[in-house]
Specification:
There is one protein chain. By secondary structure, the chain is mainly alpha-helical. It is about 80% helix and about 0% strand. Helix 3 runs antiparallel to helix 4. The radius of gyration is 18 Å and the shape is globular.
Amino acid sequence: MIRDEIKAALVAAMKAGDKPATATIRLIQAAIKNRDIEARTGAGGTDDDLLVTEVLQKMLKQRRESISLYEQGGRPELAAAEQAEVAVIERFLPRMMDEAETRAAIAAIAAEIGATSVKDMGRVMAELKARHAGQIDMTRASGLVKAALA
């Protein structure tokens, strides 16, 4: 499980004296804990690795946005710090499907459910998320689905 990997990495980072990695891993654990608390009040029942992957992807997105803002603002030292956090977070994410694999998955799902136009995009996206959640960047996949159905 990803949680176990994160705990082991925290111990290893602390033993190695890697303060930036330790701080980032603690941020990851805090975000996961917050998500667990939110899930208690909701329906729950989601796969644990999927929940952790969603949290990690959200953290990556936030940091990438921060990096672009820092670079636009002329603050390369802050962008570098965020980039270091991105590298630590990416260690725990499962391998993402590349563009060719994503296109193949979209084509298979579209053929399977008989999607022929952009009107079917919602059904294709729902099935894509159900089958490949945590393996595909859904924002990038949205554009690929739209192009495939256009």
